[in-house]
Amino acid sequence: MTTPTVIIPAHDEGEYIQDCLRSLLAQDYAEPLQVIVVANGCQDDTVAKARALTPDFAARHWALRVEDLPQGGKPGALNHADRLAGDGIRIYLDADVRPSPGVISGLIRVLEPPQPLYAGARLVVAASKSPVSRAYARFWQKLPFVAQGVTGAGVFAVNAAGRRRWGEFPAIISDDTFVRLQFTEAERILVNQPYEWPLVEGFGTLVRVRRRQDLGVAEIARLYPELLANQGHVRPGKGQLLRLATRDPLGFATYTAVALAVRARRSQQGWARGR
C-alpha cells in the first residue's frame, strides 16, 4: 500500500500544534506514515514548535515535513500539501484537534477498498471553560448530524479514488463541507474512534463562528448547487428535537439563542465574515 499522508494546515497554531503532533505520535498505527504541516502566514512559533518534534517522528520511522508559506490561507496550504503528498490515502487534520490513538489506523483501514470513499472519526467537543459553550456543545453533539453522521469537522480522509473527485481546493470558507459533499451518504464512513475538537468560548464568539459556518454552507449552495444532492438527512424531525429539548432544556435554550442571534444579525447587517 502507498504510504498514507496526514496533512495539517496551520495558521498561528503555536498553542496547539505540538499537542496535535504528539497525538499523532501516540497512534497505534505501525506502518510508514508521512505527515506534512503547512504553516501559512504564521506570525508565531508554529513552525519552530512543529519542527522540534522531527526527531520524535523519525524515531517512529515516520516522515515529518514542515512547510513555511509566507502567505496565509487554508485552501492554498491544503493545495500546497496535496502537491507534496503521495498517491495513497490522505488524512486532513486541523492543527487544533487531538485524535485518540485508534483514529489513524481506523481511517486507513476503512479506506483500503478501491472505490471512492470518504471517512471521518467520532467528534467529541473538548472541555470548555464557558458555561454557555458547555451547554451549546452538550446539545449540539446530540443532534443527528453530529451524533450519527460523518461531520468531517477537523478530521476527514479520502482514499486515492476519492481524492480524484475534485481538483484543487477552491478558495471558499468551508473546505470540510465541500469535500464531504463530493460523496453520497453511502460513500461516507464513520470510524468509531474519538477525537477532541475545540469549541470557541462565549456567546458572542459562538454567534460569530456559527454565522461564518452558515455563510460557508450558503457559499457552497451558490457556487456548487449540484453538491447539495449529497447532503443527506441532516435535520432532526420535530419529535426528535422535542425529545432532545426535554432532556436538556438548558442546552436547547442555548443552542436556540445562538441560532436566533445569527438570524437577527444576518437580517440586520447581511452576511459578513465572523472573525
UniProtKB/TrEMBL annotation:
PANTHER family: GLYCOSYLTRANSFERASE, GLYCOSYLTRANSFERASE 2-LIKE DOMAIN-CONTAINING PROTEIN. GO terms for molecular function: transferase activity. This is Glycosyl transferase family 2. The keyword Cell membrane does not apply. Gene3D superfamilies: Spore Coat Polysaccharide Biosynthesis Protein SpsA, Chain A. It comes from the Bacteria. Residues 5-165 form the Glycosyltransferase 2-like domain. Keywords: Transferase. Coiled coil: none annotated. It comes from Paracoccus sulfuroxidans.
